[in-house]
Amino acid sequence: MRVEELTREAYERDGFAFPIDVMTGDEAHDLRRRIEALESGMNGLPRPMAQYLRMNTHIVMPLVHDMITHPQVVAAARTVLGSDMLCWGAELFIKEPHTDKVVSWHQDLTYWGIGHSDSEVTAWIALSPATPASGCMRFVAGSHKNAIIPHRDTYADNNLLSRGQELSVEVDEEDAVDVVLQPGQMSLHHGRMFHASGPNASGDRRIGLVFRYITPDLVQQNADTDFAVPVCGEDRFRNFDYIPRPEGDFAPPALERYDRIMEIHAKAQSVGAAQESRVYS
User: Fold this and answer.
1) Domain extent at residue 47
2) 3-state SS assignment for residue 78
3) CATH (domain of 18)
4) Is residue 273, in this structure, part of any structural domain at all?
């Protein structure tokens, strides 16, 4: 669908919307090429490249930081959240070809520490085909209307989530919808949505560029501070410290900023865990 066809009513009913056209296939392929060039060309970094890609990528990569305010992506998110918006997180979800890595059934808002309200939305942009064969996401329509369900931490080796967290209730797989996206298409989903994804049995990487948008009134409840990027409208609350555009790709000030923010996030998101969350997969 075109962004103009997205309605808040449909999103509130289902808890998700897809496929939303936000860029052309050629633009998505070019973005993927530029990201993978950085991925393969940066050497001697203090942390594994996989970690920088998996969490808070916008802190160290100007390319990703700039995409936060992509007009079509922002227009779609504003349909859900309204005119005042911050970006709380950005990351790349990459499943390598022929991998058994999965994401178990879970609700995002369980662990973020920013409450369980409707004041957030995740935008997931496909940079390669997301299909059942490549391990696309799966949603259960209307499940966002539930409260947060108890989860259990598995720390399973093949689980891409930081704690291998999974719902402590069974999900009927027949209720799930495959979120099929072509490069340049996007999905939106609510943080209480039951969602999961399977292994990538295809011969190509499954790559999603993900932004977590929030309204400025939210507050981090598990730490004294938190961080975000202003996107549009007005922030009358200033509950978040603003993250500046990186000085360059993996520039030293950006790397220092990344370490400081990751330390705070790791502690905040490990509240109640048997062990500290993995910071990358």
Assistant:
1) 3-268
2) helix
3) 2.60.120.620
4) no
Determine the length of the chain: 281
Nearest to 251 by CA among 86, 42, 94, 71: 42
163 neighbors 153 (Cβ within 8 angstroms)? yes
275 lies in a domain?
no
Reported as a single tens digit per residue, the pLDDT across 15-70 is 999 999 999 999 999 999 999 999 999 999 999 999 999 999 999 999 999 999 99
Does residue 278 lie within any of the structural domains? Answer: no
When divided into structural domains, the chain yields a total of 1
Place of tokens 């329509």: 141
In a domain, 276, yes or no: no
For residue 252, CA distances in Å to 37, 70, 279 come to: 19, 26, 20
Which residues have a Cβ under 8 Å from the Cβ of 198 and sit 6 or more positions away? Answer: 102, 132, 135, 138
pLDDT tens digits for range 138-184: 999 999 999 888 887 777 777 776 666 777 778 888 999 999 999 99
**Which residues neighbour 268 within 8 Å (Cβ) at sequence distance 6 or greater?**
113, 220, 222, 223, 226
Give the Å distances, CA to CA, from 33 to 30, 128, 186, 202.
Answer: 5, 11, 18, 19
